[in-house]
Amino acid sequence: MDTYQKPRPECETPSVCRACEARHGGLCSVLTAAQMIELNRHSIRRRIEAGNEIIGQGEPVGSYGNILKGVIKLSKMMADGRQQIVGLQFAPDFLGRPFQGESSITAEAATDTEICTFPRHVIDRMVGDVPHMERMLHAQALKELDEARDWMLTLGRKTAQEKVASFLYLIATHIDPENADASTFDLPLSRADIADFLGLTIETVSRQMTKLRKDSIIVIENNRHVVVPNTERLRDAAGID
Known about the structure:
Blueprint: H1 15-18, H2 21-25, H3 33-40, E1 44-48, E2 53-55, E3 63-69, E4 71-77, E5 83-90, E6 94-95, E7 106-109, E8 113-119, H4 120-129, H5 131-157, H6 160-174, E9 184-186, H7 191-198, H8 202-214, E10 219-221, E11 225-227, H9 231-237
Antiparallel strand pairs: 1-8, 2-7, 3-6, 3-8, 4-5, 4-7, 9-11, 10-11
Helix pairs in contact: 4-5, 6-8, 6-9, 7-8
C-alpha cells in the first residue's frame, strides 16, 4: 500500500536555504519564501580550494554568489603586471556587481571556500523586481565604501604595528559570521600577502607579529594559528576608536 506523503507548502523556504548563513545575514535575508524557491532553482553550491581563482580581472561575468564559508581575496593588476590586494570578503558577503558585464578585479579563494552561485541574468532581473534586494546590495556597496575609507586611513596614517594589529582585528571580527568576536583563527593570507595588503615588507610584518606576541596581545601557534586572549587589547593596538 502506498504511503501518503504530505506535499510541501507552495511557499515553504527550501530546506537547504533555512540553515544558510546568507539567508539570515546576507542578500537572501530580504527574500520571501516564494522568491527563495525561485532563486534556489538556479543556484549551485561550489567548493573552491584555497589558491584557486574564482574570476579574473577583465573576464566576462556570468554569475554572482553568496559567500557561505571562507575568505576571498580581491586584487587588481596593473598594465605592467604588478598586482595589489585591494580587499577581502567574508561570509555572508555578496560576490559580484549587478549589471557589470566584466569583472574589474580578480577574486581568489584565500582559504577553502564555499559559495552559492546564481546566473547573472537571474539576479539582474530580481534586483529590478525586488526593491528590498536592490536596497540590500546598495547597503553592502556603502559598507564596502566605508571600509575602503577606513583602510585608506590604516595604510596612510597608522604605524606598522597598528597596521598589523588592524589586519588581525579585521580577521578576528569577520572570519566567523556566527561569532563577531572570534578569539582563535587561522591566518587566511601568507606573510607575503599580508605585507602586500598592508604596504609593508615581509620582515616588518614578522617583526610586528612577534612584538604583538611578546606583549601578550596575540598568541601564535604553528606560524598561522592565532589566538586573541582579549579582543579589546587588539583593538587598542590597532588604534581603532
